[in-house]
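FORM 7B: Structural annotation worksheet

SECTION A. Query
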Amino acid sequence: MILPSVMPDEFSRSLLSRMCVLNGVYAPDALMPDLASLFGPSSNAGHKPAWSDLLASANRISPQAFHARHTLLPFRRAIRPVADCTPFGSVRDLVETSAHRTCLDRQPLRLCPECATEDTRFWGFSYWRRSHQLYGTALCQKHQVGLLEVTASSWRTLPHDAISASTAIDVAITREAKRNPVIQRYTEISAGLAERTQPVSTAWMVQVLKQRIQSHHAASGRRARRLTDIAADMIQGPWQKRFFPELDMVGGQQNGLDRTCSSVRLGYSTQFYALALAVLFDCPDNAMNEVNSAVMDTFMKEAIPMSKGQDTRPTGLPAAAQSFFGGATITDAARSHGIEASQLEELLRSAAAHLTRMMVFR
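SECTION B. Predicted structure
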């Protein structure tokens, strides 16, 4: 069996396509027995090996890292309720075990003609990039040209094979994606969310967005009734109408974008969270730094009961913080609740950051 190495930003579906081409088969199922014998678990783990596990093992990286670099699973499940915040690749449901097929059956694959040409000249082949498949992506970030869309007719189809059969995304959409700063931030934030190895909790994301809405109200001097009202002035146009048509709903009905700021028990589609962050933050790096605050996310996860009957007395970080504010030293508060003092210190610094941002230095 010929096993090619995965390329940077290569979509897992693309790696399987190249394996089919190099081994002279028409579908990856023909490769599964040999791949499983070489890279499957040595002991009976109680489940059939998943493609992502096998491809990760063949490339000597962990399944979590493989998902974070080569599948759309982290994007699809980027923000989840506390009870569902488990590392990607550990749930073993249909969505995870079929992550290599994500977007193959439901919507066209997207490609950049410049990437395909460059790849073919340099490598002798081209490959499907994961970043091009993220929801709402209309431009190649490297070449700043509009992407093409195509329904791949075969597992052996690679981008250079598909250019002639592809259709360009509407030029009005790509032009707006190139010029609108909110859409540009949305693209970068989507890529950042897709690189995580486990979800952000809805509990923490709701807090992030609520704080930013309050800051927006203070800066603008007017209070918008819904997040959709804030977004409407910033992204209405061809791109929004294609990827977020629900924002045009008349009346006061809430949609997924509005609910990102309030729903803790239920997670919505990731594109709504990415758009909310793009609307409320002026810089994608600032947005992702806040979202990726592991200590704040952990605090919120531990502070939210996972079920109605769960003991509501604080434990872990929340209990240590309560002890600190009750008069204990950081060292004593951390030790008494079984956490590292550095964790509590980081939590306190993060909690103070919001107050610091409101201070005016003269």
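SECTION C. Observations
The radius of gyration is 23 Å. The chain has a mean pLDDT of 87.

SECTION D. Sign-off
Analyst initials: ____
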